[in-house]
TrEMBL record:
GO terms for molecular function: antiporter activity; xenobiotic transmembrane transporter activity. CDD domains: MATE_eukaryotic. Belongs to the multi antimicrobial extrusion (MATE) (TC 2.A.66.1) family. It is found in: Membrane. The lineage of its organism: Eukaryota, Viridiplantae, Streptophyta, Embryophyta, Tracheophyta. It comes from Triticum turgidum subsp. durum. This is Protein DETOXIFICATION. One of its GO terms (biological process) is xenobiotic detoxification by transmembrane export across the plasma membrane. InterPro entries: MATE_euk (IPR045069), MATE_fam (IPR002528). Keywords: Membrane, Transmembrane, Transmembrane helix. One of its GO terms (cellular component) is membrane. PANTHER family: MULTIDRUG RESISTANCE PROTEIN. It is a multi-pass membrane protein.
Length: 506
């Protein structure tokens, strides 16, 4: 039996009539699995679009593979990470609005996010148009730079689709509507294989066809979700049509969107930058190709903890919006156990397929053998990815994105990347040391994040004292951002029910 996602976990019907074995813990596990399962699969299928494109290009030749790999990394650093990061602010805004039963605000927040992301996409498109020249300026191999520039120019239309797609996904996810997201991603992934084959081989467009296929597939996914939102009765309360309200309070939206983007981008950039720097190593075609494949693989399996992080973000934001901090606390305990189980299982699977995985990307024996040596390192890296990903989900649900940004900045950019580059280029240890050292600093980030992130969450979100809880903080922020929401007669639980605008801007 599927759990009722809107029913209060603590103090509600679930607590009173759960029946034998239906403890609060069991009910929470069911809720998280119901959310996390489709979110993990949907996230995997969304991520696989660019991976399929790189796979098709990889069989055209080593230069095509390295060019597409560098272009994909550059696109991630300068474009997709920004759009995904800013749209992740909807995890807090829409999630808390839904928990507070302020349903009409979800549609307004979605429109507001799209309005902000559109001009940002224009700026990024200009940068992408000069990718080849930018890479040459920084000393990238000329052949790779020109190939990457050509590939990414054909991906420019994808920018204007990817942002709205992410907003639609968050809009549905925060309402606990996850099956349509998974199904639309599945249809898109299957269709993408056909589109890539037609454009790359049948029409002879080569790597340009693979880049263009990304736009077609993202657009397919967006149209499916948009039609679902427009026609489905389940979205009738949250989507009431276009509204001029979306043009208001842009600055208050940016107060949360910018830290959200920084939190996502600082981590995303750290790994993509390693691929870009690999082009400066000896034998850049091999190093760039193998490192990109390794990080693509890590990105693929990362979708599992990413789905868990999305699930806990939704659970925490919904419960806080509804004024139920104790239920949010229980949810965080459950997700840590689920994360541990998933990390061990996936790490073992990575090791088992290490000698076969390289053939999915290349027929070159040198590439396949190098990837096989990388896979055990990736397996260990994933163990730490899982921890920090679920912690990040808790942070997004609470609205503490600035804390997450500070942790990512210190772990990666003050220590991790400088150390990795020093050993790779000064001691000539190659691309493998880049992954090894980033693994070390992911461990440091996980430990630091556990302390820095969970301390404020435990004290402010889950503390039993109403005066010190996040619910009270939401009241104070609302009074600053929008005075008409201020009501001194509200108790903290009611304040949580209005925690919808600007919550978590700290």
């Amino acid at each position: 039996m599927l759990p009722n996602m809107e029913e209060p976990l603590v103090g509600g019907k679930s607590e009173k009539t759960g029946g034998p074995g239906e403890s609060l813990l069991v009910i929470e596990v069911k809720k998280q699995l119901y959310l996390a399962g489709p979110l993990v699969v949907g996230s995997l299928l969304q991520n696989v679009v660019q991976m399929i494109s790189v796979m098709f290009v990889g069989h055209l030749g080593e230069l095509d593979l390295s060019s597409a790999s560098i272009a994909t990394s550059f696109a991630g650093v300068t474009g997709f990470s920004l759009l995904a990061g800013m749209s992740s602010s909807l995890d807090t805004l829409c999630g808390q609005a839904f928990g507070a039963k302020q349903y009409h605000l979800l549609g307004i927040y979605k429109q507001r996010a799209i309005l902000v992301l559109t001009p940002l996409s224009v700026v990024v498109a200009v940068i992408w148009a000069y990718t080849g020249q930018i890479l040459l300026f920084f000393g990238q191999d000329p052949e790779i730079a020109m190939g990457a520039g050509s590939y990414i120019r054909w991906m420019i239309p994808a920018l204007f689709v990817y942002g709205p797609l992410q907003c639609h996904v968050r809009f549905l996810q925060t309402q606990n509507i996850v099956l349509p997201v998974m199904l639309s991603s599945g249809v898109t992934a299957l269709n993408h294989i056909l589109v890539c084959w037609l454009l790359v081989y049948k029409l002879g467009l080569g790597n340009k066809g693979a880049a263009l296929a990304n736009t077609i597939s993202y657009l397919t996914n967006l149209l499916i979700l948009a039609l679902y939102i427009r026609l489905s009765p389940s979205c009738k309360r949250t989507w009431t049509g276009l509204s001029m309200e979306a043009f208001r309070d842009i600055l208050s939206f940016l107060r949360l969107a910018v830290p959200s983007a920084l939190m996502v981008c600082l981590e995303w950039w750290s790994f993509e930058l390693l691929v870009l720097f690999s082009g400066f190593l000896p034998n850049p075609k091999l190093e760039a190709s193998v490192l990109s494949i390794s990080l693509n693989t890590l990105s693929l399996v990362f979708r599992i903890p990413s789905g868990l992080g999305a699930a806990i973000s939704t659970r925490v934001s919904n419960e806080l919006g509804a004024g139920r901090p104790e239920a949010a606390r229980l949810a965080t305990h459950v997700i840590m156990v689920l994360g541990l189980v998933s990390s061990v299982s996936v790490g073992l699977a990575i090791i088992l397929v290490r000698n076969l995985w390289g053939y999915a990307y290349s027929n070159e024996k040198e590439v396949v053998e190098y990837i096989a040596r990388m896979m055990p390192i990736l397996a260990v890296t994933f163990l730490f990815d899982d921890l920090q990903c679920v912690l990040s989900g808790i942070v997004r649900g609470c609205g503490f994105q600035k804390i997450g940004a500070y942790v990512n900045l210190s772990a990666y950019y003050l220590v991790g990347i400088p150390a990795a580059l020093y050993f790779a280029f000064v001691y000539h240890l190659g691309g493998m040391v880049l992954i090894l050292l980033m693994l070390l600093y992911k461990r440091m980030k996980g430990s630091l994040g556990a302390v820095v992130k969970l301390l404020p969450c435990d004290h402010e979100v889950m503390g039993s004292s109403p005066g010190n809880s996040l619910l009270q903080k939401c009241r104070e922020r609302l009074r600053t951002i929008d005075p008409k929401w201020s009501d001194p007669s509200l108790d903290p639980a009611q304040a949580g029910a209005t925690c919808t605008r600007g919550c978590g801007s700290d």
